[in-house]
Design brief:
Elements: E1 2-11, E2 14-20, E3 24-29, H1 36-48, E4 67-76, E5 79-88, E6 94-97, E7 100-102, E8 113-116, H2 121-125, H3 128-142, H4 146-167, H5 174-217, E9 224-228, H6 255-273, E10 284-289, E11 292-293, H7 294-297, H8 300-321, E12 328-332, H9 340-350, E13 355-360, E14 373-378, E15 381-383, H10 386-391
Parallel strand pairs: 3-13, 3-14, 8-12, 12-13
Antiparallel strand pairs: 1-2, 1-4, 4-5, 5-6, 6-7, 9-10, 10-11, 14-15
C-alpha cells in the first residue's frame, strides 16, 4: 500500500497542506518546529487513531479552530481509496472511506502504518501502559476486529470497577453479587481473548525482532520479549508491598480458567480497593537483550536500537500477514541519532518496503538513496525546492 496524496485542514500548524507522495522513499526536510513531523503524525493517526506525541486529540487541532481534517489518497493493487477523518474539539470524531461514513475505529481496516520516533524510547523505558498501548495498536492493525473487543473490554472494566467502588467497605449485597458475577463473565470472556491474542502476537514478533536488530546493529545481542500476565500473579501495576492476596499461578492451562481463579483470589483485595486487580489492563511485556531487561540495563544506544527493531519487526509482521500489502513505514527524526554505519544498515533494512516516509532536520543525515523524492517544509508550508526553503 502507498499514500499518493495527503491533504490536511486546520491540523497543527497547517491551515491547509497538500503534498503528493511517491512509491519508495519520501523525505521531509526542514528545521525543527517547521511542521515536518506534523505531516507524518497525521498519517500515523489514520492507522492508530492517536498521536505518538500527545495523548489528547485536541492538541492536533489548529489554534482557534473547531476541527481538523486528515485526507489521504491510498493505492493498493490498482485500487484507489480516499480515507478521511475529522477530529472535533467537541463531540465525536467522524470518518469516511470513499465518501461513505464509517466508525473511526474502522479506519485501520483500510490503512496501516508503522511509525518510529524518538518518543518510542518510552515504550521501553516508560510505564507498562505504553507497552500495552503498543501491543494493542499492533493487534488492531494485524487483526482489525480486535478494536471492538478492546473497546468492549474497556467498557466492561469501567462498569465492574464502578460496582466494586459502590460495594467497597460495606461488602457485597445479594443483588450486587449477582451483578458482579455477570461482569466477571464478560470480563473473562473479553479479557481472555485479548490476553491470548497479545501472547500470540509476542510470539510472532520474536524472530522478526531478532532479524531486525541484527540488520540495524550488525551483531546478535539476543533480543527477546515475553508476556507478564497479572492472571499468573505478575501484576505490572501492583505497588511494592501493597499487600494483595494474589499468589502466583502456574501460567499453564486455559486462559479463561486462570483468569477466573485469579479473580477469586483477588476478590477481597478488589472489594477493599474498589478496583479490578487482574486482567489485560494490568499486564506488561518484558524486553531483554543478552538475557537482561532492556529497561535498567541497556545503554542508550542499545535501547534506541531495540525500540527501532521493535517497530521494524512490527512492519515486517504486518507485511507478512496483511492482505493490503506493506504498511507505510514512517521514520520520524531517526537518522540523526545513528552513526554512519547504522544509517547505512537502516537504509538497507527499509529499502524493500513499498513506501517509506522520513523526516530530518538536516538533509546530509539521510543516506543518498533515500532522498530521491524530497519535500522541503518551512513554517507550515510545503515548498517545491530547497532554494525556496532557504528563502522561506
Amino acid at each position: 500500500m502507498i499514500v499518493t496524496h495527503l491533504n490536511l485542514s486546520n491540523y497543527r500548524n497547517y491551515a491547509v497542506a497538500d503534498v503528493a507522495l511517491a512509491p519508495g522513499a519520501n523525505l521531509f526536510v526542514g528545521r525543527n518546529g517547521q511542521g515536518k513531523t506534523n505531516l507524518v503524525e497525521a498519517l500515523g493517526y489514520l492507522s492508530t487513531l492517536g498521536s505518538h506525541r500527545v495523548s489528547t486529540d485536541s492538541a492536533l487541532i489548529r489554534a482557534g479552530e473547531d476541527a481538523a481534517i486528515i485526507r489521504a489518497r491510498l493505492q493498493h493493487n490498482g485500487r484507489d481509496l480516499l480515507a478521511e477523518v475529522q477530529i472535533n474539539r467537541s463531540g465525536a470524531n467522524r470518518a469516511q472511506v470513499n465518501r461513505g461514513q464509517i466508525k473511526p475505529r474502522e479506519l485501520p481496516r483500510y490503512f496501516s502504518s508503522v511509525l518510529f520516533a524518538p518518543e518510542d524510547l518510552g515504550i521501553i523505558r516508560g510505564d507498562p501502559s505504553g507497552r500495552r498501548r503498543f501491543l494493542d495498536q499492533l493487534l488492531i492493525l494485524h487483526t482489525p476486529r480486535l478494536a471492538g473487543v478492546l473497546s468492549d473490554y474497556e467498557r466492561t472494566l469501567k462498569q465492574r470497577n464502578s460496582l466494586l467502588k459502590s460495594a467497597r467497605g460495606s461488602g457485597l449485597k445479594t443483588n450486587q453479587l449477582t451483578t458482579l458475577e455477570i461482569w466477571d463473565d464478560k470480563l473473562v470472556l473479553l479479557g481472555s481473548e485479548i490476553i491470548d491474542e497479545r501472547v500470540a502476537l509476542i510470539g510472532s514478533l520474536l524472530q522478526p525482532i531478532r532479524d531486525a536488530y541484527a540488520s540495524v546493529v550488525g551483531d546478535d545481542h539476543r533480543p527477546s520479549l515475553a508476556a507478564l500476565l497479572s492472571i499468573d500473579g505478575l501484576d505490572a501495576e501492583a505497588e511494592s508491598g501493597s499487600g494483595t492476596d494474589d499468589a502466583a499461578a502456574s501460567g499453564t492451562g486455559v486462559t479463561a480458567d486462570r483468569f477466573r481463579e485469579a479473580l477469586a483470589r483477588q476478590r477481597r483485595s478488589e472489594l477493599e480497593r474498589g478496583l479490578t486487580l487482574v486482567g489485560p489492563h494490568r499486564d506488561d511485556v518484558l524486553f531483554e537483550l543478552n538475557s537482561l531487561p532492556v529497561k535498567g540495563y541497556a545503554s542508550h544506544g542499545e535501547t534506541w536500537s531495540f525500540a527501532l527493531a521493535l517497530k521494524l519487526a512490527s512492519a515486517e509482521l504486518l507485511r507478512r500477514d496483511s492482505n493490503s500489502g506493506d504498511p507505510v513505514l514512517i521514520l520520524d527524526d531517526v537518522f540523526a541519532e545513528l552513526d554512519l554505519n547504522r544509517r547505512a544498515r537502516l537504509a538497507a533494512a527499509v529499502s524493500g518496503f513499498e513506501q517509506v516516509l522520513i523526516t530530518a532536520a538536516v538533509l546530509d543525515d539521510v543516506p543518498g538513496d533515500l532522498t530521491a523524492h524530497t519535500v522541503h517544509i518551512s513554517a507550515g508550508r510545503i515548498l517545491e525546492t530547497a532554494e525556496e526553503a532557504s528563502h522561506g
